[in-house]
Amino acid sequence: MSKGPGLFSDIGKKAKDLLTRDYSCDQKFTVATYSVNGLALASTAVKRGGLSTGDVATQFKYNNALVDIKVDTESNVSTTITFAEILPSTKTIASFKLPDYNSGKLEVQYFHEHATVTSAVALNQSPIIDLSATIGTPTFAFGAESGYEAKSGSFTKYNAGFSVTQPDSSFSMILADKGDTLKASYVHHLDQIKRSAGVADITRRFSLNENTFTVGGSYAVDPQTVIKAKLNNHGKLGALLQHEFKPKSLLTVSGEFDTKSLEKNPKFGLSLALKP
Fold first, then answer.
1. Where does residue 199 rank: exposed (0-12), middle (13-18), buried (19+ CB within 10 A)?
2. How far apart are CA 179 and CA 207, in angstroms?
3. Gene3D superfamilies, per this entry (predicted)?
4. The listed CATH number (1.20.1250.20, 1.25.40.10, 2.40.160.10, 3.30.465.10) that belongs to domain 8-274
């Protein structure tokens, strides 16, 4: 793919990943294997809360094709198939969920040096068409997205945003939910390999006159260990410890606490990923 401004969904992604990625209150176990002919297989089991059963997911990757299959606690089967470079500089994604036969969706992404365009359509009797476009460079990008429902003839969403990315920092702002939500985030990297960073994120809901402010960050204790933490103005505190006990194999312990209601039991999660 050409290096360019990225997808509209990439705007604000650095801050979102720092504040949400690997934080979990579930038990998760992943095993990955690779064959000599280039086939990669990864299987994941997730147990949520006090449930006796959980989700099971399997991922296959071979050359430019990627297949994700997930079975949830209600025996719904979700499948996503991704093909890269069927046409030059494109990625095609098909997804569907069984037994919901109206859940099919087809998405095509086109990447250019100074622009990206995404088009997605739901494969049902009342299709929703999603369009997004981003223009700019890897340093500055501006984008917008919209969703249109053919049956009602109305827009389901329209959002716009921009991002400014420097070698040691990133700032983004998004106007979402049909103009009802304004999100702004800032990430500052503390080292050249970008394993230690600070992040601040603020979300304003105009209709509710509500602000949510979150600060957090990550710190590399050593080359194999990272700790992360986050806290918002509602008193939600999250923290995690992630250790790479061998190359690409990770053990993650995370927790969530309500500092304004200490009588509530804290939540903990454990994730183990084994990769060759």
1. buried
2. 10
3. Porin
4. 2.40.160.10
